[in-house]
Amino acid sequence: MSYIFGHRGAAGNYPENTMLSFIAAREAGADGIELDVQMTKDGELVVIHDETVDRTTNGTGFVNNFTYKELAKLDASYSYTQYQGKAFIPSLVEVLEWAAESGVLLNIELKNGVIDYLGIEEETIELIYKYKLENNVFISSFNHYSLVDCKQISNEIETAILYMEGLYKPWEYAASIGATGLHPHYIAARKEIITQAQSSGIAVRPFTVNEKQIMKQLIESGCTAFITDYPELAVSLREE
Asked: Which residues form a coiled coil (predicted)?
């Protein structure tokens, strides 16, 4: 059975990377949630995709120029006007507390490819252990140096490489840095890649899969999981 991860929650219908979106994805039947982590000026880990708040909130500026208290006041409803005043940037702590209660799986993406957030790996892993989620979480990143650091901090928590284009024998590369998962853009996740990777013990979870036909193909191919903005659609197709 292919697991379904809600991309930034249920980002197709809710403000991305908010508790509203995460809860909606879980209620739709998603097995897991994909979320993005950055760091504030005062060292708090927060859940937001972009390095700036401009696109997804009513604020302007870089995340790392705000304290967490300042960020928490911003409205994160952006284009979803029906959720104004109800959607905010959550802290990673808030999400982990919820995940510990709900049992949902988490794909935590470290957003440290543009800004090198000092200590983001250590702080993230420390919180994962604090909430006893080490068996329900895997860490992904486009910054593969960061994934190596994560494995040095904890060999127990799984890591997965994010990438956009074709890699030669990506399962071998993943294994070489201690990763147990591939998170390719779905175009780079050809059937033979999925088959060979999974037969080598490397999970494959393509992103961001929003087309019905591609969802069906991945489910039928036995792909480990996929990440989608529309978990409710993916769940209904899997149930069929």
From this structure: none
